Amino acid sequence: MKAPVSWLRELVTLPDEVTTAELASALTRAGLNVERIETIGGDVSGPVVVGRVLHFTPEKQKNGKTINWCRVDVGPEHNGPEATAEDGSTIPAGRGIVCGAHNFSEGDLVVVALPGSVLPGDFAIAARKTYGHVSDGMMCAADELGLGGDHDGIIVLPEAIEGAPVTPGMAALPLLGGGDEVLEVDVTPDIGYCLSLRGLAREAGQAFGVRLADPYALAMPEPRSAGHPVRIETPNCTSFVALGVTGVDPTAPSPQWMVQRLERSGMRSISLPVDVTNYVMLESGQPLHAYDADRLQDAIVVRQASVGETLVTLDDAKRTLCEDDMVIADGSGPIGLAGVMGGEATEVNEQTTNIVLEAAHFDPLAIGRAHRRHKLPSEASRRFERGVDPALGYAAARRAAELLAEFGGGQLAQGETIVGEVPAMPQQRMSADLPARILGTQTSREQVIDILTASGVNVTAMGDSLTLVPPTWRPDLVDPYDYVEEVGRKIGLDTIEGIVPQAPVGRGLTPEQQGRRAVLRAVAQLGFVELISLPFVAESDVHKIAPQDDDPRRALVRLANPLDDTHAHLRPSLLPGLFQAVARNTSRSQDDLALFECGRVFLKGESVQAPRPSVAGRPTDEEIAALEAALPEQPRMLAGIVTGNWTGASWNAPAVPADWTHVVALAETAAQVLGVTISRRNAQITPWHPGRCAELLVDGEVFGVVGELHPQTIKDFGLPARACAVELDLDQLLSRAPGSGTISALSSYPLAKEDVALVVDESVPSEDLRQALVEGAGELLESCHLFDIYRGPQVGEGKKSLAYALHFRGADKTLKDTEAAAARDAAVKLAAERFQAALRQ
């Protein structure tokens, strides 16, 4: 919100000694963040004066451009003397100036920057030869003086401003409002009434102890229907004011002071009717809309749109409406998207002479959803979605109608239409000492009453109990703690001492939290880098990792109000986020990557309608249970991916490529930290390569998948070749972790080692063979791991030799060689029975 200080001071009489910096500081202390102070024309120095064009001569240049060689009277103090031309004619006193603009005539008053002046951008003006003439100054456009963005032509001044004549030689900047300052204020959503000069003036007046002379204090009259007929057919509109203005001159310009204020507030001048409605909106906070009365067909109706209805809005876009859209309609159909933007069919134009002004009050939630649905934010919707004063409509419409009549030559229509009433504001009770108890600062009963009264609250005090009714412009004041915040804002949040509350004694981290932190720490120590991605995914990305129609991951949880329509679903897997991170890094030549992420995924189950508890109080236990039942399943997953080289090449060692062993190591490290033993078996699961993929199991249940990614997936996401990934259910792994006190005691008896090499068919998984050895070896076996694989002529075609190290240990005695050998033979026997394994000779 941009607020010219001169406009603010017109609404509230601040003490003369209050500087703009002090005003900005006071507003900031009241909760309004003043981001910067802009001085209009502040970068201009030196003589910038009014000049009158005595005459000019257009001259065509070789480059095709036409310039004007002008003689300009800049006042006796700055004019050069009269001179005689070569042809004997008299050259009048003044200055010769070359100008490329063509929007002026002889006798016009213009703005001239004389030699010695400096314009914004450190542009120094001096007499210099150009286009064959010595230009002794420059005739200026608005943007060249830092007075706005207009560069369509130079500034042409009227003969008088506010009744005072304008003459050559006068300082020009004061006439143009130069030196005025503009506050750029960041208004938080809870104090939407400050999206107006009226609201900011009220805050400034309260900060400095002066009262606001409210130009919009006119109360809303009783309903009446003497003007243009209006019907309200939706609960999302509580009131509608329609005032008519007839006989408006369509060629009447907007007054210069209004144009200046609009431009300094960040809006451009369009036409008198549009400028008036924008001006009143900025001043009051009430959005208005002007209809061409002669283009309206029958009554104005405020209703919900029908499915399939269309509307061409003022931006020339044709929009398809839905039942949730509230529209302004007439006999022809929708003529405006209520509270957002008007329609092209009834917009005012250069032929409009009769106008109907609309000032309505709409439901903030409905307007906020509408402008987001249609991606159509506007100054009107910005104010409506934050809450507009419901009692303001008539006063704002009346003010706009009077301005149109004054500057457009029109007349106010006799009949007025007012539909609806101002809703009653909620009454609340509060103890007078509540602000002191909550804020932790000394605030007396009288101070609380004075602050709230100055904020417009109707306060009735009975002892220490205060009955409070907020003003109509404060919809944010709904419970006692809102009033506490109001008191805190007005005494200054910077004056409240910050006290850190003492943390209650707790029981420390839960076993689950300890386990999760241990896993993440171990994975990071393994060499992986953690990242955190947003949980939103595009449906197309999910289809890439789950191409089959029956894949449960394709049942997505869609957000009702996504930040981005292209990523409108919650992720069913961590992999798309990892893939995008890899693609982003490799596009910047970072090819050697080992990334992991831990986070929740969202699995859509049976759809359950969630209740909408009232915000008036705490939800019941039944409502909380129903809300939780409506939530999707949200397991916490752990995923990792490797690409490129695990370690780069050096002078004494070649590079080590990152492969499936590194993502398997991630899963095994996570399990080992938790004291869980996992196993693997071959699988075919997208998006992994069907021949290079394995399921991860614990106690016979699958909890993850690991392996090399499918070439199509690598192509779809732009990943490096042979990328490998793992994804596992960390919650399931944590649930299998043994509890405290289950660590086995270290044995004092020696270890017996036995190695076996078994020849099996190529199709036999090494893990299945290992499991058979473990089962056959019995209780004496302490560990069994694969340490060698051989394929070659010694074992024959279609065969492979798998070598395992078996470690045996007695629990209460030293094992004899025969006992260890017997356990080994039992293991080999079971392997032979299941897989026809034979000892390698």
Would you kindly provide a written description of the structure presented here, covering whatever features stand out?
The chain has 841 residues and is of the alpha+beta class. The relative contact order is 0.06. The chain folds into six domains: 68 residues, Phenylalanyl-tRNA Synthetase, Chain B, domain 1, CATH 3.30.56.10; 128 residues, Nucleic acid-binding proteins (OB fold (Dihydrolipoamide Acetyltransferase, E2P), Beta Barrel); 197 residues, Phenylalanyl-trna Synthetase, Chain B, domain 3 (Phenylalanyl-tRNA Synthetase, Chain B, domain 3, 3-Layer(bba) Sandwich), CATH 3.50.40; 68 residues, Phenylalanyl-tRNA Synthetase, Chain B, domain 1, CATH 3.30.56.10; 219 residues, Bira Bifunctional Protein, Domain 2 (BirA Bifunctional Protein, domain 2); 88 residues, 2-Layer Sandwich (Alpha-Beta Plaits), CATH 3.30.70. The protein has 21 helices and 48 strands. α6 runs antiparallel to α9 and α13 packs antiparallel against α17. The chain has a seven-stranded mixed beta sheet with strand order 33-37-38-44-43-42-41, with helices on both faces. Strands 3, 4, 7, 8, 13 and 14 form a six-stranded antiparallel beta sheet that branches. It has a five-stranded antiparallel beta sheet with strand order 18-29-20-28-21. The chain starts with a strand and ends with a strand.
